[in-house]
Amino acid sequence: MIAEAMELPLYRREIKGKPLNQDFDYSPTAGDEVEDLYELLKTVKEHHPSVQGVSAGAILSSYQKLRVEDVCKRLNLTPLCYLWERDQKELLREMISSGLDAVLVKVAAIGLDKKHLGMTLSEVESTLDRLHSHYGVHPCGEGGEYETFVLDCPLFHKRILIEESEVSIRYNVYFHRIILTYPVIPSARLKKKREQKVQNHRKLARTTVTHQDDPIAPVHYLRLSKLRLVDK
Asked: Where does the record place the Diphthamide synthase domain (predicted)?
């Protein structure tokens, strides 16, 4: 759906490898999950020879960043890590102010509960700021405190509307996902009237699944079961 919203091709590959090489510095290891990423990006290059770089969203994880850099080096690609070691409170504010509209679909940290599922980053920003001050929670969720789903941003040609959400069914199958990106002109800020329409869609009933009912940091998921694209 996100690839469709961006009007870009999507490439996926099932991860068959395991995290065998857990050394700080990664080197090619047969059967490691990183090699699945290598093969996927190799396929992308074969279909799109003009591709020159890979964008990674790592902020603090050297483990992730070094593995992306290793794959890029072998494929003669440039790793783009623009978020690396950014101040997370500043970065969160910047993402919100730039027009990124994302909702929480997983919570797994002290102070976050299922009531926060479906809320936008702007709606939970003050809560995240407070939890960061009190407990050291990462404002951008870099420690796995929460996960989000993007409904709209300047890169989208269309926005995504949530029509139904329900209990998530989890499978032990994982995928690498690659979305090719090209420069676009950022869209104008959403008008107040359209924002109100979006908020009305979010008032639909939601059902959550509790993965771990920990009294301190319960883990809850929200599955978005029915989505559709609409014009911006």
From this structure: 30-176
